[in-house]
């Protein structure tokens, strides 16, 4: 059992990490733009796209991406994670499943970043920094975004833990030999020890991810060290 899980765990970790990177980059940028352009067409468009990202199911999005980019355009491979991730072929194999899995998380991160930024941008210390003549880029990246990251980090940690356990559908759609697909096969074969072992592994990883997020809090907001 442990050998089977050890063989498939790297594929699940690669998929989850790649999905989380896409979710963080897209989510924070979209939420930042939406907050800075509050009540404009950019804000409305970003909010609408985020709502669509949360609403679209992974199995449908994955099938559409395969049909468009793998079957019709033939830009990317249909399935599998056989090549090493640091090669061109390995990166191509990761693109479609990572986008499929990371879309929902990106939408959640974008919404949280927007709401948190809107609260911080109206704070007195931000107004004071602008009155002192601090560059707008410094106001946004140092004074505003850094102080708005605590709730965003919470969402990132919860979503990354959920991605580790939520790769089942994506791995099935893209025929990836990961822990999620192993759980499906074990359930079909009534291999209950394998199911229990896989669930225990996912739960342990979820706890570790949240522990790491709690540690990161102290670096983002030094005040937490004294509480």
Automatic annotation (TrEMBL):
Membrane topology according to the record: Multi-pass membrane protein
Transmembrane segments annotated in the record for this chain: 15-36, 48-74, 94-112, 148-169, 199-220
Pfam families, alphabetized: BPD_transp_1 (PF00528)
Domain ABC transmembrane type-1: 9-217
Localization (cell): Cell membrane
Keywords: Cell membrane, Membrane, Transmembrane, Transmembrane helix, Transport
InterPro entries on file: MetI-like (IPR000515), MetI-like_sf (IPR035906)
UniProt record similarity statement: Belongs to the binding-protein-dependent transport system permease family.
Annotated PANTHER family: DIPEPTIDE TRANSPORT SYSTEM PERMEASE PROTEIN DPPB-RELATED
Protein name per the record: Peptide/nickel transport system permease protein
């Amino acid at each position: 059992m442990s050998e089977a899980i050890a063989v498939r765990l790297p594929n699940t970790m690669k998929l989850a990490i790649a999905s989380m990177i896409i979710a963080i980059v897209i989510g924070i940028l979209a939420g930042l733009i939406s907050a800075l352009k509050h009540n404009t067409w950019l804000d409305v468009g970003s909010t609408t796209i985020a709502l669509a990202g949360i609403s679209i199911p992974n199995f449908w999005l994955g099938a559409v991406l395969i049909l468009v980019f793998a079957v019709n355009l033939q830009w990317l491979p249909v399935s599998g994670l056989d090549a090493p991730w640091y090669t061109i072929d390995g990166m191509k194999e990761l693109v479609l499943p990572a986008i499929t899995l990371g879309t929902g998380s990106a939408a959640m991160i974008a919404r949280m970043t927007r709401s948190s930024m809107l609260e911080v941008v109206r704070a007195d210390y931000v107004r004071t920094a602008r009155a002192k003549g601090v560059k707008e880029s410094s106001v946004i990246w140092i004074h505003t975004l850094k102080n708005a990251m605590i709730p965003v980090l919470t969402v990132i940690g919860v979503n990354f833990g959920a991605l580790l356990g939520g790769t089942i559908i994506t791995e099935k759609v893209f025929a990836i030999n990961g822990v999620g697909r192993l759980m499906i096969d074990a359930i079909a074969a009534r291999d209950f020890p394998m199911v229990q072992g896989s669930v225990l592994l996912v739960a342990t990883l979820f706890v570790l991810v949240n522990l790491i997020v709690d540690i990161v809090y102290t670096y983002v907001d030094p005040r937490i060290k004294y509480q």
